[in-house]
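[Structure tokenization] protein backbone as discrete codes

[Encoding] learned vocabulary of local backbone shapes

[Begin record] amino acids and matching fold tokens:

___
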Amino acid sequence: MPDIAEVLAYNMKRLRKKAGMTQEALAEKAGISTIQFYETGRRWPERPYLEAIAAALGVPETELFRPIGPETAAIDQLLTAIESLKSQIAELKQKQPPSQEYMIAWGELLPAERAKVLELIKSLTRNRVSRAAKG
């Protein structure tokens, strides 16, 4: 069973990562010069620092001392994997060219709807060509 300093260190790091913060960002938000020693369990923060860290993370102080065990680590790994997948999906959506979106929408149309779209495109193309010829 981990000692209380290990529990605090583990939870600080877990909550900081969950919040998407670096050690430097958390320290700055909490008004502390560094949190590295707290996250490694080499130092124990004084009570005002604990309060400031919890506030910066947006959690109650008790969350910093939540017991850890095999199930906690497994849950955290799953949450990390989910966040990673969400980020990858967001990146793919940003990289997806608009034409890909049109192809997906096209695939969802019924054959009759596709025929209407094609007829509209032909009509618009004919109008543009006839205008160009007149102009």
